[in-house]
Amino acid sequence: MKLFVKYMVSSRCKELVLTELKKLGVQSQYVMIDLGVIEFLESITKEQRKILEQNLKHSGLEVLDSNKSKLIEKIKSTIVDMIQSEYLPDTNFSDYLSQKLKLDYTYMANIFSDVKGITIQQFIITNKIEKVKELLMYNEYSLTEISNRMNYSSVAHLSHQFKKVTGLTPTFYKQIRQKRERAMSDV
Q1: CATH H-level, domain 68-181: superfamily
Q2: Are 32 and 38 contacting, i.e. CB atoms less than 8 angstroms apart?
Q3: Which of 81, 153, 155, 156 is deepest in the core (most CB within 10 A)?
Q4: What predicted TM-score, i.e. pTM, was given to this entire model?
């Protein structure tokens, strides 16, 4: 069971949620507390959910209804599926999401950023960079091929975004990975 929590955007918020779960006696039932989401191994009771919602509301956090929760999951899975596909669509991401989910992009973007604390665009960039890391690791494609495959306007654009997210250039990242692999094979 997943509960999505609006305005849960910092580690302090996560600590607050953990404290409330401990008060309810359900802290051992949760699997994961992440920004904007609590994932339980098993469902909590309606009474526990009601108390949790009330206590979080006093702290400025809000448990979202199931429709918004489902929408967030649909947005995330659509983005991940899109990025993991062989080639990204040629259309821009906002049009792609609107087309796929048959909803207004502004509506989706507002709900997503309220809950996750980041924009859809930031989520897409983070996932694209993770895919680029994966492609770099397998060493099957050149940086130019990866740039084209991931719909970057240029290698420079990819490199700039990669460095902004990871703090490393793609070339340096690749070198570090290769050094680690060689060191591990020597062990």
Answers
A1: Homeodomain-like (1.10.10.60)
A2: yes
A3: 155
A4: 0.68
Which residue reads 């692999």 in tokens? 181
Identity of residue 26: V
Are the C-beta atoms of residues 132 and 146 closer than 8 Å to each other?
A: yes
Q: How many CB atoms lie within 10 A of CB 46?
A: 8
What does the H/E/C string look like for 31-74?
Answer: EEEECCEEEECCCCCHHHHHHHHHHHHHCCCEECCHHHHHHHHH
The pLDDT tens digits for 148-159 are 999 899 999 999
- 2-64 — its CATH code? 3.30.70
- Say if residue 42's pLDDT is above 90: no
Residue found by looking up tokens 């992440």 in the block: 34
| Spatial distance between the Cα atoms of 42 and 28, rounded to a whole number of angstroms | 10
